Structures are given as structure tokens and as C-alpha cells.
Amino acid sequence: MGPPSPLRTAAAGAPARVQFPLWVIMLLIATVAIGIAAPPLGVVALGMAPTAAAYAGSAFLVRTGRLRLAKQLALGLGLGFNGLFIASTLIPIGLEFQPAFYVGYFVAALPLIFGFGSAWATLERRHGEDSRHSPSPPWLTMGVLLGVPLFTLTTLWPLHAFFLMARPAMDRMADQAAAGPWGALSMPAWIGPFRVVATRMSSDADGVALITDPHPAGPAGFVRLRPGDKTGAGGRPIIAGDRLLVPLWGGWSYRMED
Question: pTM of this prediction?
């Protein structure tokens, strides 16, 4: 037999083109059509979209052997979602919608990180870059990236950690608010990552609130009470905390009023 033709050799050596299965394209079209025709079903389809995208994307990466892209997607999504969840615990609107972030974790973060992480781990094993007799580094990394968001949303540890670092400055501001006139404080003021826009004191000046969200329907902020005082303001809480109450240290708490 003669040597292969140049045209056939060039085609064999060419990089694989991006080709998605027909069923994936049809599923995308059906999802858009359902969303237009029936909005409630469109919401359900939208909730299933991350899982479908993770399945189709990871299958494509494994089939085409794109190890580097799989690793970049897995790490990028994992770090991005973790950064988003950490930031959500440091701003009033993020703390207010923590239940929505829980839903977002299970609907979007979990399937996407797990799907592309599985593709990364599969391709690492295929290329012989991990040991068959020890835990796979990709799986360990994915375990951390999947576990930390739940820990963050459950414990609100970034709020506690940044509060500890900002507490001396908060104590000084609370002391100034309790001892002097309003003009002695310049507002708004940043204390670490927290933006204080106003202060509020109880009738006996033993309770001080550093307001981070002055919404008339329900303010939010850091409240410092004297030991043994559960409310301040003669039994009326400075900020009720009926929507969110996070106990901190030294008589402090973060409260959000409904």
C-alpha cells in the first residue's frame, strides 16, 4: 500500500472541532420554548439548566480529552462560587437572602463544580498523573471546594472573622456615639469591610447600634448592649433582630429587623 495522502494526514492531525450532541441542542431549544410558553415550567427548566450544562460539558471534555480546560473550569467555578458565598455574608443584602444562596448552592454550584471536577479527575487518571493507591488530588480539591460553601453559609464564619478584626474600631465608634453629639461622628464610615451609615442609641445610652442598612421598613446593623440587657431601649430592641440575629462577642450581635 502506498503512503497516505497529504489531505488525509492533515485531517487526522487537525485539532478536534467543538461538536455538541444533537440532543443537547434540542434540549436547549426545548428549554427556551418552554420558558416562553409557560413561565412556571420555564423556572423549573432554568433550575435544571446548571445540571444539564454540567453533564453535557463534562462529557464533552472527557470525550475530547481536554484536561487543561476541565481543570480551569473546575477551579474557576469552585473559587468563584466560594468567593460569592463569602461576600454574601459581609453585606446586608447578602445576609438577608441567605436562604436564596442555599438554594443557589444546590441548584448551581454543586452540579457545576462536581460535574467539571469529575471531568478533571477522570482525565487526570487517564493521563496517569495521579496514583491509583492514594486519594486523587482533583477529588480532594473538589471536596474542599464543595464543602467550604456549606460551612460558610451555615456558620457565617466570614462575618465572625471580620467582626473580630474590626471590633476595636467598632467599640471606639460605639463609645463616641454614646458619649458625644451626633456631629462628633462623620458618616458614612468604613470599618473594615462594613459600611456604617448611622448610629442609634437606647434611651439610657447603654445600648448602641451601628447601622449598616438604614432601610425604614427594617434596619440592619451591629448592636452592642450592656451585659445582661437583652433588648435595650427600655425593653424595645434597638434593632429587633426578628429577621436575622447573629450573636457575636463582647455584647455585640448583628441584627436585621423585618
Answer: 0.75
